[in-house]
Every structure is written in structure tokens, then in C-alpha cells.
Amino acid sequence: MAYDRPWKSFEEQAALLQSRGMEVADEAAALEYLERVGYYRLSAYWYPFRVFEMMNHDRHGRPTTQATDRFVPGSQFVDSVRLYLFDKALRLRLTDALERIEIALRVDIAHLLGERDAFAHLHRDTFHPSFARKKFGRDPRDSFEKWQVRCLDMERRSKEDFVKHYRQKHGPRLPIWVAVETWDFGTLSQLLAMMKVPDQRRIANKYGVPEWEVFQSWLRSLNYLRNVCAHHSRLWNRNVIDQPKLPELGTLPWCDDFHDQPQLIARPFLLLSIARHMTKVICPDTGWHLRLQKHLTAFPVLHAQRQLSLEDMGAPPGWERWWSS
């Protein structure tokens, strides 16, 4: 299909929005944001204000809707900017927590495996055979082989002085407590997923999660969250692709609010709650979760007839009662 959308100046972009029903009270400010942030990025934040029309039914007989180019009455350009700024600050705050979690997990894994062997991560027998031998698609390599390639590539790409210094003194391969400092969150998460069950359970128990499968899914989801934040993507109301599992009812009381609520599990508030839980374990005196709560409760007040709130993020009713405890 030929692409038929013509290039438009910033003034033409603002005029197009106005022609579709969006109010632009301060045109100079709107042009500044279009020039600095971009029409396409901001479009993710005015998308909720578009008019949706009923279409056909899906194969299950459920009605489907489709977004039109029109905006609901009262939609203002400033509303999309406020959502954008709220989301930007949300990602920055989460980046802080995710850094703490990633660094703590590096220590947890390196300390546990390194006690047995400085190069434990290089040996297949360190890992659970069923987990390490998994294959996906047509790739003939199993999980352990692919992880080794990824691990070695990250070591080679590292420009850290400590890596250069170690190699000069001790040789090319790094012990786990050095190598772990060259890995990203995804590499770390994949390593834990290959570990033997007693080892996974030991680390999960440290974070108050008795079910190792649940904890493993948490790390996968936090890696997904990290990638969203790192790429400056819309977060606040996105559909989470890599959704975390929940422990059994009563295990972690705050998790109970999400049980049997697929619409909440599919939204990012659960991931925020997992980050809260883990940062409180890492640093019991932290105030990070309180600072995030203050930001969340300052959700922007909007002008459009279609109101948005923390419920669109997947926040369960009464979440404040356990968040600050």
C-alpha cells in the first residue's frame, strides 16, 4: 500500500487538530510542544479523547469499536500535554526503583552462585536441565547456549575500566561477581529463569515471595517495564504484554486486590506495586513508594467530557490503604 499522508508544518498540525474538535487555547505553547515533543508521540496522549464508534462484532459476538479522527467535546491540547508530563515523571521515578532492584539482584545472584564457583555462570551443570535446555522455534540452540552468547557479547561490549583492568591481570573470562556488572536486566532475568529451583526459591524467599514461579514472572515483567521506561514509551495506561503471575490468596495481602481481575493485571499499576514491594525489601526505610504515591495522587485534572483516572492505570479501589503501610 502506498503511503499517502503528506508532510505538515507545525502550524498545519495544530490546525488539523482544531479541525477535528480539539481546543487549542494557547497556540504558541501548542506549537512549542509539537516542535519539541512531536505530533506522533503526543498522539498517544490525546488518543483517549477520540470519539469511538461501534463497529461489527468479533467472533465471540462481542461488539467492537474503532477510533475516529474526531475528539469528544471539551478535549483540549493542554490535556494531552499534562498526561504526557505525568507519564514522563512516572517513568523517571520508576527508573530509580528499577535501578535499585537490578543492582540488588546482581548481588543476590552473584553471591549465591559465586560461593560455589567463581565461574558458575559458565557451567551448564549450574542450572536446571529442563530450564537450560529449552528451545524456541527453529533456533537449534537451547536457552543456555543463547544466554552464553548474550552474556559474552555484553562482556565484550563493556567499556568499564574495571573490566579492562581485570582482563589485563587475570585473563579474558570474568568471574560472576565481575561479569554480572556488565549484564542488563534481561540477561539477569534469563539467568535466574535457568537456575535450579532451590536457588530460585532462595532468592524469591528473600523478597517475601514463596512461589519461585511467581517471582520469576515478576522479573520478566519488571524487565518489560524497564524497556518501556528506557525507550521513553507511553506507560501510564498501556496494555502490559508480559504480565506477572500472582501468589496464592493471602500470601501477600496487597496482591489479593488483583486476584481474578484480568483487566487490572493487564495494566501497569500492578508492576508499580511489584516495584514498591521489592524496593521496600531492599531498603525498608525507603521513601520511594511515598514519593510515587504523591505523584500518582496528583493525576492531572482534565477538561474533556471523557474523564480519565488512576483506574485507567489498573489501580484497584482502596489501593491507598496498603500502599503507604
Keywords for this entry:
single chain; 325 residues; mainly alpha
Radius of gyration: 23 Å
The chain-level mean pLDDT equals 94
Strand content: 5-15%
Number of structural domains: 1
- Please describe the biggest sheet, giving its number of strands, its sense, and whether it closes into a barrel: 2 strands, antiparallel
Counted beta strands:
2
**Annotation field: number of helices:** 15
Low-confidence parts lasting 5 or more residues at pLDDT below 50? none
Q: How far is it from the N-terminal to the C-terminal residue, by CA?
A: 55 Å
Elements, N to C (H/E): HHHEEHHHHHHHHHHHH
Spatial sequence of strands, sheet with the most strands: 1-2
Structural class: mainly alpha
Helicity range of the residues?
40-55%
The outline comes out as globular
Q: Short summary of the structure?
A:
The protein contains 15 helices and two strands. The protein has 325 residues and is mainly alpha-helical.
Structure description:
The protein has helices at residues 10-19, 27-36, 39-46, 77-114, 129-132, 143-157, 161-170, 176-179, 185-194, 197-206, 212-230, 262-265, 269-282, 288-296, 320-323, and strands at residues 50-57, 63-71. It has one domain. Strand 1 (50-57) and strand 2 (63-71) form a beta hairpin. With 325 residues, it is mainly alpha-helical. 52% of the residues lie in helices and 5% in strands. It is built from 15 helices and 2 strands. Strands 1-2 form a two-stranded antiparallel ribbon. The model has no long low-confidence stretch (mean pLDDT 94).
